Amino acid sequence: MSDLPLILAGPIVRRVEPTLVCVWVALSKARSIRLTVFEGFQMAGTGPGVFSGGNPRTFGAANTLPVGDQLHIGVVYAELLPEQALTPGINYSYNVSFGEFLAGVKPGAQTFPGLVNPTADLKTEGLLSDQPINNRPNLPLGYEVGVLPGFALPPPQLTDLRILHGSCRRPGHVYESGQGKLSFDGLAWVDDLILEWRRGTPTTQALDANVRPHQLFLTGDQIYADDVEAPMLVMLNLLANRLIGKTELLPTRYPPEADPASKEKFLGAPKQPGFATLEAFIQKMRADGKKPLEELKKDARVRVLEDPCFDRLFIYLYEQPFSLEPGFQSDPAAPGVRFWPADLRHFPAGLREPLLDCEAKFSSTDLHSHLMSLGEYCAMYLAVYSSAVWELQADAPALPAAEQIFQLPPGDLPQLWDFHATDPDSNTIHPRKDRAAVDAYLEKEKRKKPVSIQKVQNAQDTLGVLFASLTRVRRALANIPTYMVFDDHDVTDDWNLTLSWRDRVHTSPLGRRILVNALAAYALFQDWGNDPKRYEKGAYRSLLDQVTKLFPASATSGPPVAAAKELEKLFALNQPNPEPAPELKWHFSIDGPRHRVIALDTRTRRVYRSRFLPPGLLSPEALKEQLPDPAETPLPPGIEMLIVISQTPPLLPSLAASVIVPLMTTINELENHKTLNNLPGTEPDNEIWPGDELAFKAFLERMARYKRVVVLSGEVHYGYSAQMSLWTPGTRRMTLPAALEADLANADPKNPVLSQGIRNAFQAANLPLGTGARLVIRPGNAEWLVIDPAGRKTYLVRKEAAGLNVFEEQGPARVAQFVSSGMKNVKALIAKIARGVGNAFALIDLTPAERMAWEANFPAPLAVPDGVRLPPPVRDRLGSLPVIVPSKNWPPGIQAARQPDVTWRIDLVSDVRPDSQRPEFTRPSGPPPVFDVKDIEASYREIAARHAGFASKLRFSRGVVYQSNLGLVRFEMDGQTLVACHDLYSHPPGRHEAALINTYRVPLDLFDDQRPALQFDLPEE
Question: How many alpha carbons lie under 13 Å from residue 41 in its C-beta half-sphere?
């Protein structure tokens, strides 16, 4: 193995404000760090020695935090007084230098810059040159040789702001089989966009700090813990143990003690009538010539579990010789728990699924090479941030072939191999002590399954592409303030999906340990830089302190049980529900001159209304804390725009919510019925915002109180944009004279002109209407709209018991939602289903999702005429709290007895630019075919060929992008209307470079958008 360089990953610019600049770095040695910030572009050169020139603007310093012998995390920030604050519109540069670790300063703590005596920096470590480092490719971090990296603050004008966002970056993702070398990493395109800014465009000046990319938000799944390719896990495990430098131990409950009572308790089998012990039952069944497991499964209490782990554990314990063998460690602080070295001998790549299924109680269908140890999680972060930690062979990643992955270790197999020698596909147990049988099983895995061989080859190809991208990724992250939000794959798929999942995993020693490792790594590699000052005290400082106790220098193994348990408490893994809230909070916010970004935590602060149904993604307490009511906590003066980061998009295309997600759920539950352990809705993740309508409605209403909101999301593995208008009841302004009902009722639907009587009534109420005011009839609703374009006002007229009441509508709250997902992950099944229904996402504009909601169900919100019988599900909704119903497809005669408390409309946004403004590779080829009535057969053939040729371009529909993508958010003015714009980038066929695919535009100020009304199934005329 080659020696590890001093800088393993980074520098990454993290939180940047006028009075604070934060930088993250990972080192192989304990060091003190000094951060130096300069105004303007700063040349540091590439010669020998640490750079000490220039005119520094500010300094910061910190000690690194020891995680392992060769892993030390540094988060350093420089603070400024308000009167010395950094200024928007200026480019800034920075250097990071390193000195000896300061013995008098706590690990990970900030300190005085003057205490650091630098002996190395970005220049001495070669990061400002264009030469390889340790034979690994390198690009100068400042984009020019010898120039320091830099950043700029968000600009004073909202229309200059540039925000990048993306999610779902799976290293081993392959578009389709055989395309590993073409499955590109969208995060590298941040570098392309920075380069474009440096060169200038037809509409922007080169190096103008006001229009450079200002902020990057990684909105979830920065790593994939549960979908790791086996060749990569081999690399990560070797790196992990090298980084930690100690024997990292992982706990299991298996094997139990060999006495009958311990075995029976471990299995959890119900007592059989007439038998004192399970052993007695087994002996009797054998004596009668019966198979004990089959007889035991006749018990409904066993059958209802539908748990393959029950079968496997029974076989391990009772159908082969069982004894408690040496090879593990124990700890008096954890009775009944076994501890195993976290190496490939005990936890081999490609074979972890049965163990994680039965011991950790995970439910992902991608457990074969799941990350487990803290070292593995840390190694994964380093490997996706930088190429410095990758082992090379002939200038390419040194990744094992299938023969090396599925090779039995020498000597007797550890007892954990009872799990690893189990084939989860067929639930076949291969006796661990029969090396020939186990070797034959592995031989089948690597040779008799062409899919496995091809998968390993695909993984090697796509990981090679990722490795080649890392120089661009590293340079980009060094030059744009970056904020990171976790989601499930940063920990494990299905994380906190249901209350039943939470109960199972949190009560498993191995499950809890993996969650601790994942969350500790997330804190160190992602969250710490989001808000570094909060890590100076309280629970956050305690977290850092506990990390230093996991693998102390004096120990040969770890972590100690006590330190792990303290982390479990900090992460609230020992409480039955997410509330009351733990001390550690993962949400955060950051302000610019004209915008505020709030990043939600929709993973650990959920609400569960049953054990198995989809959760509410934010509990009422979490919603109040993370997205406060602006009436109680208004936005600061000058802030014009709220940007909310929700890992899961709240505004789903209706086809996805109503067809694709349920269909994928059904398909996968049928395919994986046994392995899902009777946990419904686990794949795909059935945790969309509309899954819990109460929490969904509360979230929408809270956003609406801010009037204009942009939501950034990922998670779904396709990119798109959506918009929402949301109305609450307007202010009652007057009651029209009863005599005017005839003017309303008798208006011509084809030419609904306001009568003079209505105009006079509005005038008398001091609500004069312009000459262009018009009447809109809402058939069957006893409602009318009076729209006044000149005054930009809308009035709702309702026939109520008190008369013809007139309400002045407030313009609807507007939400623009922009989804970029994934940067390197696209679910093929989603694309196939969407293609199978004819590119149906584009039809969403024709059928927007509309909802009407009432807080109370009494008195009845809808008046149902005698003789009209509603279906049971509809009656159930009308009796629920709150009452939420769609606006469409109602039987004629039904009316809204009272105004809804809230109504909303959600629909997809399409790119409406002409083909000439879109990339050539996204357009139809040639002019539309002409249908020749004289040769019908040939015309149909031409049309069919045209459709077939366009099928490959459905990755780039005007509505949805199914290929790796990266989003850029900006704002424009269209007259007096503020427009939120979403530029979605992907890549041309076969080329790893950013290409603008779609531009979506969502106006954030509307006055004449008509709120939903009841619509009826009427016979065709």
Answer: 13
Q: Is the dihedral of CA 912, 916, 918, 924 positive or negative?
A: positive
The torsion angle over the Cα atoms of residues 269, 271, 277 and 279, rounded to 10 degrees, is -40
Helix (H, G, I), strand (E, B) or coil at 213: coil
| Residue 654 clears pLDDT 90, i.e. is over it | no
Strand partners, 364: none
Type of residue at 375: G
pLDDT computed for residue 673 by the predictor: 45
pLDDT in tens, 311-321: 999 999 999 99
Q: Could you tell me which residues are beta bridge partners of residue 805?
A: 735, 798
Phi/psi-derived region of residue 425, left when phi > 0, alpha when psi is between -120 and 50, beta in every other case: alpha
Write the single-letter amino acid at 499.
L
- How are the residues of the chain apportioned to helix, strand and coil, as percentages rounded to the nearest 5? 30, 25, 45
The residue-averaged pLDDT of 728-732 equals: 95
What pLDDT score was predicted for residue 176? 79
Neighbours of 760 (CB within 10 A): 12
Inter-residue contact 345 to 488 (CB < 8 Å): no
Query: What's the mean pLDDT in 56-64?
Result: 98
Range from 292-301, 488-497, 832-841 carrying the lowest mean pLDDT: 832-841
pLDDT in tens, 387-429: 999 999 988 999 999 889 999 999 999 999 999 999 988 889 9
Backbone dihedral region of 496: left (phi > 0), alpha (psi from -120 to 50 degrees) or beta? left
The secondary structure of 779-806 as a DSSP string is: TTTTEEEEEETTTTEEEEEEEETTEEEE
Residue 786, beta-bridge partner list: 775, 795
Q: How many CB atoms lie within 10 A of CB 18?
A: 17
Neighbours of 705 (CB within 10 A): 17
371, with CB counted inside 10 A (0-12, 13-18, 19+), is: buried
DSSP 581-641: PPS----EEEE-SSEEEEE---SSS-B-SSSSSPPBSS-HHHHHHHS--TTTSPPPTT--E
CA angle, 578 as apex, 332 and 654 as ends, to 5°?
A: 135
Give the gyration radius of the chain's Cα atoms. 31
Tell me the C-alpha distance between 727 and 1007, whole Å: 11
Strands (DSSP E) contained in 301-354 are: 338-341
**DSSP bridge pairs for 712:** 645, 818
Q: Do 446 and 452 touch, CB atoms closer than 8 A?
A: yes
As separate numbers, helices (DSSP H) first and strands (DSSP E) second, the chain gives 27, 40
Nearest to 728 by CA among 1016, 1015, 1012, 978: 1012
Whether the CA torsion 36, 37, 39, 40 is positive or negative: it is positive
Whole-number Å distance between alpha carbons of 655 and 843: 9
Provide mean pLDDT across the span 878-901.
Answer: 91
CA dihedral of 183, 184, 187, 190, whole degrees rounded to 10: -150
DSSP string, 593-606: SSEEEEE---SSS-
pLDDT number for residue 449: 66
Q: How many C-beta atoms surround the C-beta of residue 934 within 10 A?
A: 6
Q: Please, where are the H alpha helices in 690-845?
A: 693-704, 741-745, 756-764, 828-836
- Nearest-CA neighbor of 236 among 97, 138, 361, 369? 369
CA atoms within 13 Å, Cβ hemisphere of 941: 4
Adjacency order of strands within the sheet including 338-341? 338-341, 247-252, 557-558
Counting other chains too, the contacts that 202-210 makes at CB distance below 8 Å and 24 or more residues apart are 207/91, 209/88, 209/89, 209/90, 209/91, 209/152, 209/153, 209/155, 210/88, 210/89, 210/152, 210/155, 210/156, 210/157, 210/160
Checking phi first, is residue 572 left (phi over 0); if not, alpha (psi -120 to 50) or beta?
left
